[in-house]
Design brief:
This protein has helices spanning 2-32, 38-68, and strands spanning 75-79, 99-103, 106-112, 118-124, 127-135, 147-155, 158-165, 171-179, 185-192, 198-203, 209-217, 222-228, 234-238, 246-250, 255-258, 261-264, 269-270, 292-293, 299-307, 316-326, 331-338, 345-352, 356-365, 368-377. The chain is an alpha+beta fold. Among the domains are: 72-91 and 291-386, no CATH class; 98-239, no CATH class. The model is unreliable at 1-5, 27-56 and 61-66 (pLDDT under 50). Residues 1-20 form the signal peptide.
Length: 386
Amino acid sequence: MNKLLMSSFLIVMIVLSACGKNDSSDDTDAAAKPADTPEEVIPQASTLEEPVTETTSKEEDAALQQDAAPQTLTLQEKVDQVGNSTLFSSNAQDYKGFEIIEKDGYTYFIYDSKDHDLAVSVEKDNKWVAEDVPINITDSSLPKDSLGDRELISSGDSLLYNLEVVGESDYHVVYKLTFDPTGSVTAELVKQTEDGEDADLVQGSDGKAYIFNHIQDSSDYSYERVLMNDKGEELYSLKNMEDGVVDLLDVHNGVIYQEDTVYDIKVDDFIWDEHGQEMSFDLNFDVAPSNVYKSNIADLYKLDTYLCAGCTDGMAARADLSYSTNGTYETTEISKYTLPTEAAVYDATMVVGEDSINVYSIVEFKGNPTLQKYTIGRIDQPISLE
């Protein structure tokens, strides 16, 4: 009986021992091979997202750095002598106040002349194709001895020419001049004021010239100022505007910068500050009319000429082209390009193209007056006005 019990006990122990080995083997395998459970996959997935986030961050940083990169006005090309020769006119006054029109590959150089009203020379492919052609607007219509002040401003691919007639009557006539490659001119009378009325030309921020007709009310001696485009078409009638020099018509914002005030032409009133005073500003528009250009609401190009100290003929010392961003009533200069100062500048003007700005200057080159050209790349960013 005892032998039988002992045998049964040994069999049970052997079976239990075998089961223990199998369980131990399973535990060892489980430790060597981690279970592929969802809980353990989540950290791995999270780890894979980090490079994606890092890449996106680097791209954003690069974009921000590109946006923050300094904008600099850079010279692209210089022409020492436009037309490949010095200026040739013996009738030119002094080339002060000259205007430039660029059209269809031709450059029209317009200036005051001693023997006639104006003169024009035409350049193409750096050769003069027409030289010192007289523009006699007044010979057939107005006696020269009756003429007072005159002014001219380029307006796109044409020119506005304002003449004051004095004598028994006192009025203004404004012509729109267009040119062809031979130097011939077509003069269209776009405005003649009534006796006693004044007219001024105003530079628009869009590169066009505008007309201000000053109409006096004889009953109370008040003035109405009628703003017209370069076709003589009325745009606005302004009855609350004070007399003074208009620096710029900001076409994009619908305001006029006049001396140190801002006038809203849409509502015919000044812009007032929180204290009920006329809003003052410092946009430094004390430059020739054709030398201010606003490419859109916020950007401003300006060409300044600085008088030569000690010079008696009004010669400028230098010319600077600047680019600024235009805030509400102030500007922040972003970049400035100064024309080389090896030769003193008589005068300068600019023509704005799609991608660049051509600055033309009159200097003395090899002992003779010469028209030079500097091509400078634009750096403004287009802004939708819609």
